[in-house]
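Let's practice the habit of predicting before peeking. Look at the sequence and jot down your guess about where helices and strands might fall. Then scroll down.
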Amino acid sequence: MSLIPRVLTIAGSDCSGCAGIQADLKTFGALGVHGMSVVTCVTAQDTRRVYEVVELTCHQVGRQIEVVLEDIGANSVKTGMMPSAEIIESVAAHLERYRIELLVVDPVMRSTGGDSLIQDEAVTVLKKRLLPLATVVTPNIPEAEFLVQRRIRSEQEIEAAARDILGLGPQAVIIKGGHLPDPERSTDYLLDHDGFTLVEGPRINTQNTRGSGCTFASAVAACLAHQLDLKEAVIRAKEYVTEAIRHSFALGHGNGPLGHFHV
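Done guessing? Here is the structure:
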């Protein structure tokens, strides 16, 4: 058995290389784990927007999971874009079957450019089937608003939303505060059954943040695979993403990607 930690991402493919499984695999490589990928859908997207999404079948998604986990196994799993209720149900069933203990769920709902990436009925299945399996769920504020069905504009509202999401069954939730209007700091709110932990970092003034949510969740999964506890994993992931944003670069005509290999 290989000694290198193994991490599986179950997500969509981004042909521009900025987000999705491409960002996940870059993150895994930078953080010293062996990355594996199960593709849920193929997207046509650039730095500006998502133009088309083609879903794989549930059989195709499930078969990828089976062959990877039966042969190689995984120390942790990260899920990203899963556009349909049927795919989410299939993924949840396979994660249960293989008794995945460390699961990071990034509830991908919209791209940086604002394009919808999940069907409305799939959100219900996500909440009922996948979130109860999660070690940690990593929504940004718009995603948290979608999960709790109300607006979030203050720290108190973030904390209330985090409690509601924790009530859906995950072991922990971290709401990323990058959308708050603080010009100096970017504060994330981690809630587990011991209470809140604030994870702070400087705000980097750049528009080149495409794939930052994918990168953060993947960094948490990589750190968990390295056997860090959850709080240490989140803090380390925050540090990694902050520096990746600091080293981000302009690409194309929209929002450029992070500098994943700054370390």
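How did you do? The chain has a mean pLDDT of 94.
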